[in-house]
Write a structure and sequence with these properties.
about 80% helix; about 0% strand; about 210 residues
């Protein structure tokens, strides 16, 4: 395997393992809707990474680098969307608090899988960190004498494989918590924490 692939992998692993907006959304949806919802969210997240990889491979990144307002649009859109998801989580935690539930009720809210996938896709697509990673950082790992399109797609596949594994792990963890805690107080607390985390990420992105 070429040295630049190993170098890219060494850079990408800590980038993937650092919790960010996509990780929080996967965990949020798996807590709310179970493992299937978390898996659908993870798939949506990584489909957006594939889209960015294709944009990079076929030269769109060079055009976007000459359009500074694109980053402003991404930042504003990402901030608004994360804030919306955070408020939805807080509202869901409050709604569950108002319900008269049995202590042994361990069911979860079944959200359409397409909705979960869409939330994952949109969150990652509006994440400036992912855009910068693909449009600016990834091309730096491609040697000048290498076939740009092929190598860009190989590096994209490597990132997606690592990220998908990471997100599926969180989907499993969140789904297990959802089944274990049901709609009890601890689960409402998890909903509230995930909502607060999303709002904090939105504020950080806005600054």
């Amino acid at each position: 395997m070429p040295a630049y692939v190993w170098t890219f992998a060494a850079f990408t692993v800590p980038f993937v393992a650092t919790p960010g907006a996509s990780t929080v959304v996967v965990l949020r949806n798996s807590i709310a809707g179970g493992i299937r919802s978390g898996v659908a969210t993870a798939v949506g997240v990584n489909l957006s990474s594939v889209c960015y990889g294709l944009l990079t491979a076929f030269g769109v990144s060079a055009a976007l680098q000459r359009w500074p307002s694109a980053w402003t649009v991404l930042r504003i859109g990402g901030t608004a969307y994360l804030a919306l998801l955070g408020l939805r989580s807080l509202a869901r935690a409050w709604t569950h608090r108002q319900r008269d539930l049995r202590l042994d009720d361990a069911s979860v809210d079944e959200a359409p899988l397409a909705q979960s996938a869409s939330e994952g896709f949109t969150t990652n697509m509006l994440n400036p960190s992912i855009a910068l990673f693909y449009l600016f950082v990834l091309p730096q790992f491609i040697p000048r004498d290498a076939p740009f399109v092929r190598v860009a797609l190989i590096l994209t596949s490597l990132h997606v494989a690592l990220a998908l594994t990471w997100h599926l792990t969180w989907a499993g963890a969140g789904g297990t918590l959802a089944q274990t805690l049901g709609r009890s107080g601890p689960r409402r607390a998890l909903e509230a924490v995930s909502g607060a985390a999303l709002l904090a990420l939105a504020v950080k992105l806005a600054l």
